[in-house]
Amino acid sequence: MTATYKFLIADDHPLVREAMARVVREAYADADVIEVENFDAALAHAQQDSDIDLILLDLNMPGMNGLTGLLQLRNEQPTIPVVIVSAEEDKQIILQAVSCGAAGFITKSLPRDQMCLAIAQVLEGNIFLPAEAMRAPDSIHKRRHQEQGFTAEQLRLLTRKQLQVLEHMTRGESNKMIAYHLNIAETTVKAHVSAILRKLGVTSRVQAVLSANDIDFSQFLNR
């Protein structure tokens, strides 16, 4: 007996929503498909319905604020996988999305059969990355990002627990997930995150995650 899945498609362009819904129903004829046109509506549905199996989320629709929306959604509903759907094909943006908790990244230029394959792969618990985009050479943006990572002196300002929290943040974990893995209260995690941002001189969780993504945490945690 084939499982019946529930999908949430969030995109501000009606034609794109309709096209994505067709892709979903082509692969899962009995699927329950919910369509919304902005991030706030997507977040509200996710908060109210834990039975959603997969969220297909436009990167640039109203309310997203870049990857901040993805982080908020993952923090509110960490058990629902989220796939970013975007016209962007920059490898660094794709990696940033995954580092912030996305279960995959579907470029809007991807052929329909590959979109179906991507959705199936994520539903099976895997991460999907578009092969063509990932084979592309690194962008100037990535080279600049690598030059702008945190210094050892900055990282030494963090306590051992704050370093552990930051390490889990780079894995795309929500505050709830970090609290579970470190066996501390979620409010304590929030306090650590605030302290991390202040000590490292960044203004957002996304900025902290991106700048810390290449850190070898073992050399700081074993000090």
UniProtKB/TrEMBL annotation:
Residues 6-123 form the Response regulatory domain. InterPro entries: CheY-like_superfamily, EvgA-like, NreC/VraR/RcsB-like_REC, Sig_transdc_resp-reg_C-effctor, Sig_transdc_resp-reg_receiver, Tscrpt_reg_LuxR_C, WH-like_DNA-bd_sf. Keywords: DNA-binding, Phosphoprotein. One of its GO terms (biological process) is regulation of DNA-templated transcription. It comes from the Bacteria. PROSITE patterns: HTH_LUXR_1, HTH_LUXR_2, RESPONSE_REGULATORY. The modification 4-aspartylphosphate is found at residue 58. The keyword Disulfide bond does not apply. Coiled coil: none annotated. Residues 151-216 form the HTH luxR-type domain. Pfam families: GerE (PF00196), Response_reg (PF00072). One of its GO terms (molecular function) is DNA binding. PANTHER family: HTH-TYPE TRANSCRIPTIONAL REGULATOR YHJB-RELATED. This is DNA-binding response regulator. It comes from Vreelandella nigrificans. The lineage of its organism: Bacteria, Pseudomonadati, Pseudomonadota, Gammaproteobacteria, Oceanospirillales.
